[in-house]
Amino acid sequence: MLKKTAINKISELAVQLMQKGTLIAPVQEAAGFNFREISDAKQVNLNFHNTILSPKAAFFPQMEDFVQYQTGQSIMEAVPVELNVKPTFLFGVRPCDVKSFEIMDIHFSGTGVVDPYWRARREATTIFGYAFDLDEPAQAEEFYQTLGIGAADPDGSDIFMIRKGETLLLKGITPKGEKLLTQLSRLADGSANEEEYFRNYISRGRDFKTRYTCVDDKNIAKKLEDIFDNGDFWMKVSDACLSCGVCTFVCPNCYCFDICDETLFGKGTRRRVWDACMFTDFTLEASGHNPRAQVFQRLRQKIKHKYSYHVRKYGVISCVGCGRCTRHCPVNIDIFSIVEEAMTV
Ligand code: SF4
Ligand code: SF4
């Protein structure tokens, strides 16, 4: 089923979605675009390339309270924070970011230990994927096609959207997406010509080039293992790194978190917050020993986790080539150039 709406009527579609649940969509902010919960339908803006932060926070918020308690009372008195998940519509997600959810599912629900917070939000959410504009070249930092992800791949979306001039075409990909489309009365039916345009666009997206042309994940994983002890290489590539953690916070596939307690005037909250392997104290032990005290050890860990350990353990690179880490690194460290250079050492 193909539906359509004029781009300048997106807010009408947004209103309908907000009547059904929570709408999370790209909005323009001072520094650029980000996914935000929409309170005013006019905020939804599809004139973006990609967001600064990935949409992972829709399932894995940067900060989340788990338990509240009174200090001095038994643990039995602690009160779990209710997980109040409503039907959610995650609107305008680029194909590489949609792919990242599948990789994150491995950690949050695919290894035998299910994270109920991630799972509940995933199940409550309908994903509206959104193809990149094939008439504009990919940005220099992006390499999703190198990792096998097309610029217009609908896989993983419930509804997939492409833009045709000033018209937005929407196609149901899963039964959930198909059903929702039938309920959105603001949408008109797409024509046979538009169906054909949609099909062609998706196949054109598979040939849309981002930088680099081929990756052999098993070779990369092995090579990174072989050069683990090559201190000269790792120190050279990490020389400028500030350990700021930006690359991990913007990444759709970084999932490290810390659990911490905050108490104030006898009231306590146990919460989960994002953490980052690039931070100086990430591996600091209670004894004072830090097995990754040096910057090069932390950058090596980040790269090896994504391109080596993850491939060995789960058979897939934990990176979707979105380019955010490079785009937002204050000192222009480029993860894939390091991987490329590692292959030549
Ligand atoms: S490592 Fe960089 S390019 Fe890969 S998914 Fe994370 S932010 Fe995107
Ligand atoms: S964003 Fe750049 S400087 Fe900051 S931790 Fe990552 S690689 Fe280092």
Rg (C-alpha, Å): 22 Å
Q: How much strand content do the residues show?
A: 15-25%
Main-sheet strand order equals: 3-2-6-7-8-9-1-10
Poorly predicted tracts of residues? none
How many E strands? 12
Instruction: Write out the distinct hetero groups bound to the structure.
Output: iron/sulfur cluster
**Helical segment tally?**
11
Distance between the termini: 51 Å
What proportion of the residues is helical, as a percent range? 25-40%
Largest sheet: 8 strands, mixed
Structural class: alpha+beta
Order of helices and strands: EHEEEEEHHEEEHEHHHHEEHHH
Mean pLDDT: 96
How many distinct domains? 2
Query: What's the shape?
Result: globular
Question: What topology emerges from the helices and strands here?
Answer:
Elements: E1 2-6, H1 10-20, E2 22-29, E3 32-37, E4 63-70, E5 79-80, E6 88-93, H2 95-109, H3 116-124, E7 125-130, E8 159-164, E9 167-172, H4 175-183, E10 188-189, H5 192-206, H6 217-226, H7 231-238, H8 246-249, E11 257-264, E12 267-274, H9 295-314, H10 324-328, H11 335-342
Parallel strand pairs: 2-6, 6-7, 7-8
Antiparallel strand pairs: 1-9, 1-10, 2-3, 4-5, 4-12, 8-9, 11-12
Helix pairs in contact: 6-9, 7-9
One iron/sulfur cluster binds at residues 241-247, 278, 329-331, 333.
